[in-house]
Automatic annotation (TrEMBL):
<dbReference type="GO" id="GO:0005615">
    <property type="term" value="C:extracellular space"/>
</dbReference>
<dbReference type="Pfam" id="PF00079">
    <property type="entry name" value="Serpin"/>
</dbReference>
<feature type="signal peptide">
    <location>
        <begin position="1"/>
        <end position="18"/>
    </location>
</feature>
<dbReference type="GO" id="GO:0004867">
    <property type="term" value="F:serine-type endopeptidase inhibitor activity"/>
</dbReference>
<dbReference type="InterPro" id="IPR042178">
    <property type="entry name" value="Serpin_sf_1"/>
</dbReference>
<dbReference type="InterPro" id="IPR036186">
    <property type="entry name" value="Serpin_sf"/>
</dbReference>
<feature type="domain" description="Serpin">
    <location>
        <begin position="46"/>
        <end position="262"/>
    </location>
</feature>
<dbReference type="InterPro" id="IPR000215">
    <property type="entry name" value="Serpin_fam"/>
</dbReference>
<dbReference type="InterPro" id="IPR023796">
    <property type="entry name" value="Serpin_dom"/>
</dbReference>
<keyword id="KW-0732">Signal</keyword>
<comment type="similarity">
    <text>Belongs to the serpin family.</text>
</comment>
<protein>
    <submittedName>
        <fullName>Alpha-1-antitrypsin homolog</fullName>
    </submittedName>
</protein>
């Protein structure tokens, strides 16, 4: 059911664009900043989706966070130079931008995402686990802290079990204990590990209980199951992409995001 990941992409982009309506009082320079990323990040998301889809058996689900991957690669690019840097930038679709512009755009994006909404909590950020005794350039660490909602964690990777435990506890802390055993096999030669996390808890608009009824859920082409179907009548932003055989729907949470980007 590839539909799911499309909806996810739409939701992430919707979140990224929603500030448009929330910060009318900000300066126009600042206001534009995170929008620089919208088009390249959307293109990257679909290009990556196509690659993943090509390697996934028919009928299997694909679930990924394109924004998380763009962010992690952008963090990496702040520490990269020359050929490596230009390859990262061209893959991300940032060739017309420079690192300063990208950093500032992400800083703005994290600022927007950090504004808590009523009935929902979104926590996104990055952590760099650095091997104790290894000192990356101070500028790199500072850029990640300043622009990518970043944190630096000292880890002694020589002891893999202890390192994994410390990293897992950190991730559990950032995800309200939802993700507890992310890593188990840490390479003792590791110098740095980049961790990107997203925690989201939102309240959907309520459904009318009386409208719930049993109906067929088509698990695949030949299997169906009777399940309770919730129903709601409303207007939704919906897009059908015939070329990519995809349908995209924006399902807003119970927040200000009703006013979706067009
Ligand atoms: C990045 O691009 C902006 C806008 O074109 C420019 O003002 C700035 O000097 C550039 N920064 C670097 C480090 O090249
Ligand atoms: C890391 O752990 C190893 C093994 O426990 C120890 O020998 C080493 O001194 C530690 N390194 C640092 C920088 O603490
Ligand atoms: C995460 O760590 C912070 C700081 O140590 C602590 O205040 C908070 O309660 C922790 N959260 C969870 C879910 O463990």
């Amino acid at each position: 059911m590839h539909f799911c990941s499309c909806a996810l992409i739409a939701l992430l982009l919707a979140v990224a664009s929603a500030d448009h309506h929330l910060h009318h009082n900000r300066g126009s320079e600042d206001h534009m900043s995170c929008h620089k990323l919208s088009a390249p990040n959307a293109d990257f998301a679909f290009a990556l989706y196509k690659r993943l889809n090509a390697r996934t058996a028919a009928g299997n689900n694909i679930f990924f966070s394109p924004l998380g991957i763009s962010t992690a690669l952008s963090v990496l690019s702040t520490g990269a130079h020359s050929e490596t840097h230009s390859q990262l930038f061209s893959s991300l679709g940032y060739s017309t931008l420079n690192q300063t512009q990208v950093n500032e755009a992400y800083q703005h994006l994290f600022h927007v995402l950090g504004q808590s909404q009523e009935n929902q909590k979104l926590d996104v950020g990055n952590t760099i686990a650095v091997h104790s005794g290894f000192s990356p350039l101070e500028k790199f660490l500072n850029d990640v802290k300043q622009h990518y909602s970043g944190e630096v964690l000292q880890i002694n990777f020589t002891n893999p079990a202890e390192a994994a435990d410390k990293i897992n506890r950190h991730i559990a802390n950032k995800t309200q204990d939802k993700i507890k055993d992310m890593v188990n096999d840490v390479d003792p030669e590791t110098m740095m590990m980049l961790i990107n996390y997203v925690y989201f808890k939102g309240k959907q608009k309520p459904f009318i209980r009386e409208w719930t009824h049993e109906d067929d859920f088509h698990v695949d082409g030949s299997t169906k199951a009777q399940v309770d179907m919730m129903m709601r009548m409303d207007y939704y932003h919906f897009y059908e992409d015939a070329v990519n055989h995809a349908s995209i729907i924006v399902l807003p949470y119970n927040s200000n995001y009703d006013d979706c980007p067009s």
